[in-house]
Amino acid sequence: MPTSADGGAGLAALYQERILDHYRRPRHKGALERATGVHSVKNPLCGDDVTVAVLERDGVVVDARFTGTGCSIMQAAASMLMELVRGRTRSEIDALSQRFDEMLAGGEPDDSLGEMSALAGVAAFPARHKCARLPWRALAETVDGRR
Fold first, then answer.
1. CA angle in degrees (0–180, nearest 5) for 56-57-63
2. How does pLDDT run across 41-92, given as a tens digit for each residue?
3. Largest Cα span, the chain
4. Of 126, 125, 56, which is closest to residue 92 (Cα–Cα)?
5. What angle do CA 111, 115, 117 make, to 5 degrees?
6. Which of 5, 68, 122, 142 is 20–30 Å from 40 (CA)?
7. Residue 4: its pLDDT value, please?
8. Residue 127, Cβ density class (10 Å: 0-12 exposed, 13-18 middle, ≥19 buried)
């Protein structure tokens, strides 16, 4: 990570562009017909609403999709999350969720989170933490609901 003020500003701009890209052109958005688990979560305070559906085989998420409406942070987080969890087991997803929480608490990008590291800047806005966490909550309930 760049240490100069200019390099830091460039990285922040890159992260902002990544978030906007996922918001404008979300990946894996839409219904998942053969889902093995589906769960919806809503934040009534801001209106964010997300449904996560997964297709799991032999303990591995082979497909994940989302639907819903909300702010750019929530939509981008959902898009990035659907990419991140494909090919992962529940224990791997739990570990990534914990790392995401740590990143939100500390504000430092975590490369193990892939593109989700772009959401590190949300740490500076505690009121937006719920927006970034909402897709994770839906995913956790989706995967837990299969057990």
1. 40
2. 999 888 999 999 999 999 999 999 999 999 999 999 999 999 999 999 999 9
3. 49
4. 56
5. 50
6. 122
7. 43
8. exposed
> What is the C-alpha separation between 58 and 90, in angstroms, rounded?
11
Domains of the chain by residue range? 5-144
The structure tokens listed for 112 are: 């193990």
Question: Is the full-model pTM beyond 0.85?
Answer: yes
The type of residue at 69 is: T
Residue 58 neighbours by CB under 8 Å, 6+ apart: none
Residue 37 has φ and ψ, to the nearest 5°, of: -155, 140
- Topology adopted by domain 5-144: Sufe protein. Chain: A (3.90.1010)
CB 23 within 8 A of CB 72: yes
